[in-house]
Amino acid sequence: MRNRNLIESITKAVEGLEFGLKYERNIKIQAFIALLVVLFSLILNFDLTDKLLIFMWCGVVISAEFFNSAIERAMDVLSEEYSPKIKIVKDLSASAVFILALIALVSGLLIFFKYLSRLI
Ligand SMILES: Nc1ncnc2c1ncn2[C@@H]1O[C@H](COP(=O)(O)OP(=O)(O)OP(=O)(O)O)[C@@H](O)[C@H]1O
User: Fold this and answer.
1) Using N-to-C axis directions, what is the helix angle for 6-23 and 48-78, rounded to 10°?
2) Where are the domains positioned within the chain?
3) Can you tell me which atom of ligand 1 is nearest the CA of 65?
4) Residue 44 gets which letter from DSSP?
C-alpha cells in the first residue's frame, strides 16, 4: 500500500486535496474565502509583498484545516463514541486552526484597509 515513487505520492496528495474540497465543510468555506481574498488582492492591485502575504496566509490556514480534518478523521477511526480524551484532541486541533485564522484575519484586514483607504 506504500507509494512507490514521487509521482504516486503526488497523486495521493491530489486525491486528498480533492477529498477535502469535496467532503470537508470547513475546507470548502476556507477555500471559498481564500479565492475571494486572492481575487480582491488582484483587483486592488496589491504590491508583490502584500500579495505574497495574502497567498501565504491563505495557504497556511487551508493547510492547517487539512491537518485538523485529518486529525478529526483519525480520532473517528479510533472511536465514534463520546470520549473526553478525543474531545480534547479534537478541540486542541481546532484551536490550532483558529489561532492561525485569527492572525490571518487581522493581517488581511490591515492590508485591505491600506488599499481601501487609498481609494477613498
Ligand atoms: N468522539 C468524540 N468525543 C467527544 N467529543 C467529540 C467527539 N467527536 C467530536 N467531538 C466534539 O465535537 C467537535 C467537532 O468535532 P467534529 O469531528 O464533528 O469536527 P467538525 O464538525 O469538522 O468541527 P471543526 O469545526 O472543529 O472542524 C470537537 O471539537 C469535539 O469538541
Assistant:
1) 80
2) 6-117
3) 27
4) T
pTM: 0.92
Which 8-state DSSP code applies to residue 45? T
Q: For residues 101 and 79, give the distance between their C-alpha atoms in angstroms, rounded to a whole number.
A: 28
> Which pLDDT tens digit goes with each residue over 86-95?
999 999 999 9
Tell me: the pLDDT tens digits for 21-49? 999 999 999 999 999 999 999 999 999 99
What's the complex ipTM?
0.92
**What CATH number labels 6-117?**
1.10.287.3610
* 75 CA to centre of ligand 1 in angstroms: 9
Neighbour-count burial of 54, counting CB atoms closer than 10 A to its CB (0-12 exposed, 13-18 middle, 19+ buried):
buried
Q: Please report which confidence band the pLDDT of residue 120 belongs to, taking 50, 70 and 90 as the band edges.
A: confident
Tell me the C-alpha distance between 101 and 120, whole Å: 28
Distance from residue 39's CA to the centre of ligand 1 (Å): 32
